[in-house]
Write a structure and sequence with these properties.
- By secondary structure, the protein is mostly helical.
- It has one domain (2-217).
- It has helices spanning 2-5, 20-40, 46-59, 67-76, 81-96, 107-124, 136-139, 143-162, 168-183, 190-194, 197-217.
- Helix 2 crosses helix 4 and helix 2 packs parallel to helix 5 (81-96).
- It starts with a helix and ends with a helix.
Length: 221
Amino acid sequence: MSAWFNPAWHVPVLPSAALLPLWVALSWGLVGATVLWIWADRHRPAWWWRALAAVLLLSLCLPATRAWTAWLALALQSPSLLGLGWLLLWARDVMRRPGARAPQVPVAWAFAGVVLGWGLWLDTLNLWPAALDVPLFAWGFSAVTFWAVLAAVAWMGVRASRAGESSRSAALLLAVLAVFALTRWPSGNLWDACLDPWVWLGCHGVCVRAWLARRTLRPQR
């Protein structure tokens, strides 16, 4: 735990290699089962889709039937903790209230995800201008980054609560940070826990929809 309080540490704390196969199977299995559970809420026969979701979860118990998660991980790596948490939250809403819509993401949070995703994309392809030289992905291993993100999320959650807005997004992110601090899943890098390609595309969708709605409501001159 000393790594969390030493801002000068340089050796990243990585998740246990022995637990990585477990995380790959558990994460993709939960994603698949949750998507099917939500799909069953809008398509009939619902029992068939829910039975298939149960079979997917049971398949994680047997190594011989768990290979499908390994193939997914080979092509798409692992889902982020945030994406998995968002799906589980939606499934819980569906269980409580059939027909529930996906949890709403504040535009400010989505915009932050878009900016972070593009920054990581530029860093991955080494396209940052030479004058900047921003090692953005490497910052995800730093304890300083973790505490900074934690403080920012807590502040935005308090601000939303005082304004009478929903603080579910802040609560979800705080839960993600807590799980990451304890397990370092999925890769030991904070950005991998908070963002993946599907979450990044979803953030784009939220921003585009908000822009179109604002343009539609703008009074014509």
